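TICKET #2291
ISSUE: user wants both folds in one file
ATTACHMENT 1:
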Amino acid sequence: MEQIPFDKRTGKIWFNNELVEWQDAKVHIISHGLHYASLVFEGLRVYDGEIFKLEEHTDRLFYSAKRMDLKIPFSQKVINEATKKIVSVQNIKNGYIRPFAWRGSEMMGVSAQQTKINVAIATWEWGAYFDPKLKLEGIKLNISKWRRPAPNTIPWDSKAAGLYMICTLSKHEAEKNGYTESLMLDHEGNVAEGTSANIFFKDKNGELHTPIPDSFLDGITRRTIIEIAKSKNIKVNERKISPQELSKFVGCFLTGTAAEVTPVSCIAENQYKVCSTIIELNESFQTLVRKKKAA
């Protein structure tokens, strides 16, 4: 099925505390957010009509804004209620939510002290990020030539637009070479994350290993999976992981709002199995996010 371009869709978008027609939700092309990437955002999932971890995502949106020196002109309570409202108005049952805040068009230049901070929330029906067949078989990753920058060079713990430029470049390169996703290393050359997802490995003893999030986001789904694993008495090792260790692991998977829990079948020449541990973690995650239905 052909996807409708996002600028051609219909419905409503919450825009600066008003419900605006989807195609009328516009900003001027001379916008600081567009030219200087002064924009922060979040990504949330809706499962069976319920928003998963709304408050945690809103907390992170406001934290990201503070890190980017953006003062959101609404309270977290207003944003939470607006998110619920737009999901209801759009009648989203299983979908995605994108709240974002950016600097406007009042000034043009690196300095943007007098720009207005705009906020919008859009939502749409959305299924799996990766092809369901690929999720069963495991997706293939290359290793990107781009690295996550050192933490003293960027506001690395924010979900800010500019930080995703190298993610787009990495994913494009991967797709051109027959891969689905790309593994990014950090500034020290250690394993970091995917282009928009955290990464876990399973060793032959059944323990999980995941990089310490000290130069990239500590994902909300990542933390959820760690909690689930510990509830199953699976040991989780948060540590530095060298690329030389990739061949020693027997399993691998990605986690994220979009990725959910996605098995990995290979990273470059390193092969992995979609083992029972990964399948069970995914099943437990799906039960958790659809807990009202499961109950």
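ATTACHMENT 2:
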Amino acid sequence: MRNPRALWRDLGAKRFFGVQVLFLGTLSQFALAPLLWSFWLVPLGMPHPLASVVPGKALLALGVVFFAAELLNIGLSMLAVSRAGKRGLLGWVPTLHLYYPLAVAATYKGLLELFWKPFYWDKTAHGAFVPHGPERSG
């Protein structure tokens, strides 16, 4: 997306918009995950933080939609693993719930850096880097 016109030329309109939907869908999934998780407070006997702002039926509807989204997410993950011929990984699908909090933290970190340090690139170090050639012995 550094050069949207070039991406448009390379992908065409349909694929360009597909990339945008995939990107925004992924970003919004992780950015809104804490709201989804807040609905687990209700079965634990605690009031939902939005209960005083959102009418009861609307809050219930949100809870049902978010729970359905959770089930859909698990189902789609299981379908993807099965269709890829990796049925042995089906048992690992529930561990995605351990991955999501890490992805949420990374999303918020990235969003904060986007606003406070827009030109900062938080690169991951891969291997040893020797800036002036190999070390000489002796």
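RESOLUTION: both attachments delivered.
EXTRA DETAIL ON ATTACHMENT 2: The chain has two domains: 1-26, 32-116.
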